[in-house]
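Quick one:
INPUT:
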């Protein structure tokens, strides 16, 4: 007996953590026999996974919900904006249901209510590793939800709750399945990767009959056994990170750390309520580089935070000169509805914020360019992300996370495929990217 499978449209906004939530919902939908529709009008209902982090993202999410309502009419809202009380209800009273982030079960319950699941779904509709939104050769692995910090510019804990680490065997099984499926790079994400397991007091878990601590060090040791790239994101410079630098030096995981420093002035860090703000960060970076000279550090900074004086800003410039970070993003402070920082005194005028951002980026551009130029003449392993019409392979080295860092171009891609590892000699560098020739 043939039947037409009900179709669900899907819109996913926001960060990799939201994309990871989307992948779980899509996997469940497919497993239960729903079809995923690429268009609004072909769908029986639409799920919108929203972002609620800064005000611009809230607006983008509300617009996306409005568009889905106009084009389709039946809309279920999930994600971070759904956690922000009545924002969605007030703007779009006709949505069918609203849930917060990380709510696969709730979303499925609402889908079942408004679009009953098909009979007799074939269990083999879904590949082992589920439905993924990234290319086949890399995957995000989320190791925890939520965060124990209360940074004043951030509302994530109010949306996603306190730190809740995943069981170590569940993370390791997911990684093993991905590696088996041919994934070449695992990107480890959470709100606070260094804190993995703190909430469980680093308790012993069991994987393949072996006891393993729920802790970043043991997690990295295990992930390093698959012989593929393992990249850590959102790491705070706690002392616990010192333990994983030797693993990087030994080539077990990539010598890459994504550390959101946000500022260098103690006064501003205190106003931000940043974790690890009193640590001697420069001393720590120096020690890490002694152990692992190839270490690449990417970071983000906020300029124009309320109360930031010219002196605080100069302290930040001195810090980046000294720290010589490889990849840096800079944002001007933007108020977030519901964030404590909105109440702080001495907001910085918009034009001063913009001028500081330009000065910051000019200093960092020189540092980045010099660090890339120093790679010319070196041989690096790169991973092929795509091959364009001209036959150029667009690749990344260990120093480059997908979509946020630079690229390595190989002009002769003959015989290469997406997902291949290739040895190249670096022959040229620009401010952001490198050019390589195959060895």
């Amino acid at each position: 007996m043939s039947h037409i499978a009900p179709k669900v449209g899907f819109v996913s906004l926001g960060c990799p953590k939201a994309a990871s939530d989307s992948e779980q919902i899509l996997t469940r939908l497919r497993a239960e026999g729903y079809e995923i529709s690429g268009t609004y009008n072909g769908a029986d209902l639409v799920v919108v996974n929203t972002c609620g982090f800064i005000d611009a993202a809230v607006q983008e999410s509300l617009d996306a919900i409005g568009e889905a309502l106009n084009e389709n009419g039946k809309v279920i809202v999930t994600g971070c904006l759904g956690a922000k009380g009545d924002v969605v209800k007030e703007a779009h009273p006709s949505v069918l249901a609203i849930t917060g982030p990380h709510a696969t079960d709730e979303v499925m319950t609402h889908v079942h209510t408004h679009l009953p699941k098909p009979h007799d779904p074939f269990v083999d509709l879904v590949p082992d590793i589920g439905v993924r939104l990234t290319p086949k050769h890399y995957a995000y692995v989320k190791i925890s939800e939520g965060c124990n910090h209360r940074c004043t510019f951030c509302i994530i804990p109010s949306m996603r709750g306190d730190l809740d680490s995943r069981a170590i065997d569940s993370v390791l099984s997911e990684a093993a399945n991905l590696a088996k499926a041919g994934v070449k790079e695992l990107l480890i994400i959470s709100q606070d990767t260094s804190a993995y397991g703190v909430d469980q007091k680093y308790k012993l878990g069991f994987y393949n009959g072996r006891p393993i601590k729920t802790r970043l060090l043991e997690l990295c040791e295990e992930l390093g056994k698959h012989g593929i790239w393992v990249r850590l994101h959102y790491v705070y410079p706690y002392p616990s990170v010192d333990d994983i630098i030797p693993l990087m030096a030994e080539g077990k995981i990539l010598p890459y750390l994504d550390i959101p420093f946000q500022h260098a002035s103690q006064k501003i860090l205190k106003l931000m309520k940043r974790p690890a703000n009193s640590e001697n960060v420069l001393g720590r970076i120096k020690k890490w580089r002694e152990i692992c000279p190839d270490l690449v550090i990417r970071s983000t900074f906020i300029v124009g935070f309320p109360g930031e004086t010219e002196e605080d800003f100069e302290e930040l410039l001195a810090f980046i000169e000294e720290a010589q970070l490889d990849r840096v993003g800079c944002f001007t402070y933007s108020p977030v509805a519901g964030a404590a920082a909105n109440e702080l005194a001495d907001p910085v005028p918009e034009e001063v914020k913009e001028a500081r951002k330009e000065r910051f980026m000019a200093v960092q551009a020189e540092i980045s360019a010099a660090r890339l130029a120093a790679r010319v003449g070196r041989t690096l392993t790169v991973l092929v992300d795509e091959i364009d019409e001209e036959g150029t392979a667009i690749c990344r080295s260990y120093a480059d996370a997908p979509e946020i860092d630079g690229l390595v171009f190989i002009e002769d891609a003959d015989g290469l495929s997406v997902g291949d590892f290739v040895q190249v000699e670096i022959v040229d560098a620009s401010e952001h990217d490198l050019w390589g020739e195959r060895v």
